[in-house]
Amino acid sequence: RPGRILNEVLFFPSEMACVEHIFTPSLPHSCLCPLPHGVETSFSLLLQYILSASSSLDLCVFAFSNMDLSRAVLALHSRGVTIRVLSDKDYVAITGSQIGVLRKAGICVRCDVGSVYMHHKFAVVDSRLLITGSLNWTLQAVQGNMENILITEEPKLVQPFVKEFHRLWARNDPA
Amino acid sequence: RPGRILNEVLFFPSEMACVEHIFTPSLPHSCLCPLPHGVETSFSLLLQYILSASSSLDLCVFAFSNMDLSRAVLALHSRGVTIRVLSDKDYVAITGSQIGVLRKAGICVRCDVGSVYMHHKFAVVDSRLLITGSLNWTLQAVQGNMENILITEEPKLVQPFVKEFHRLWARNDPA
Ligand SMILES: [Zn+2]
Ligand SMILES: [Zn+2]
User: Does this complex have an ipTM over 0.85?
Assistant: First the structure.
């Protein structure tokens, strides 16, 4: 049974490829965009892990400007998945930030108000799957930088992040 | 046996505490510095994991200015551990960078010459233990930022990083 625990590493920059089929699986061959189709990339795998959420997504990212990642989070929200987003107060106001878009859609967003720079970039799917690494949720990071993302279900790695998220979420309660 | 695999998460900022005993364990109670003593912190644990190397340390970090981390790498080098450091070409020249210090000590350093920004911050100890996360090897990151570091021996997580290091190391061979 321990051998069945998911452990995977994705490296970036990701190849450029169309990800439309991930969002609209019912229309697999209909996309007319100029990007390559039918190619599995680090980025398409990342999107699929995020979209695998069935009950909750806890997201702690200081920078969030990637439109496809934003689209994935919005899709989960419209499916009824409970989303919580914790971001850095200084980054939220920056051009291209998707945090305002998520907020307008009704997603619960809290900004870290501490004096300390929030450098995390992790997500916890269904309190069970950890997605973490060097990758910021920006277009530059996905297509431009050499980055890594770990994806693991190992409880000894996932649980500390679940706990840290709860701690930061409670600490930044605006109420 | 799979249950014995090391998996640990460290969160930062680390408490400030003296780490002198880690470098000179033979003199445990002799330090006269003003920092707290005998306190185990995220940073002291990180140093100990790095210093646990007995044969090799492969380091891929775009920023390296932390003096204690530099001291740990130099200590391993003087013990005969094979060190390879891969860094970002743009960061090497920055004030406080320890890359020049490591080079002068005879440690093999290669700078990524690709057009792409190298955003990794990972280390592989003895080809067996992976240390990776959001933490840059700077003083600011260790004491100032909210960061995370994963430490794992899980082969499915370690091996992709070993392979990626070899790929990048070979690609940046100056010869
Ligand atoms: Zn397309
Ligand atoms: Zn001391």
Answer: yes
